[in-house]
Amino acid sequence: MEETASLGYQIDLLAAARNSRDQMDAKLRSLCASQVPGDTQRNLQVYPNYSGQTFKHILVPVWLLSYDYGRRAFQVVINGYTGTIAGRYPKSWIKIILAVLAALAAAGLIALLMNR
After folding, report:
1. pTM here?
2. For 16, 69, 109, 113, which has the most beta carbons within 10 A of its beta carbon?
């Protein structure tokens, strides 16, 4: 069997539980605030009640990729289960500028033809 490198837990159980509860509390506050009419709310208090909590660490297949392109380093994370990719990639500013100019030229041409 081929050996592969793997990582263990990087966040302890209590810290992960606190982090997830903070995220849930923020989402609940946001959802409650969106139900109150008006742009801003004063003294909005949300008291969530969590019960029947269980905590389990999970291990997911994740591929980590780092590469250098020119003088810059890029990191990519690939979810081995869903195939979702997250990360930054090099962008060619010349191609971006040319695409914007082409879109503007096409819009100008369409406007010119519509006015005839």
Report:
1. 0.46
2. 16
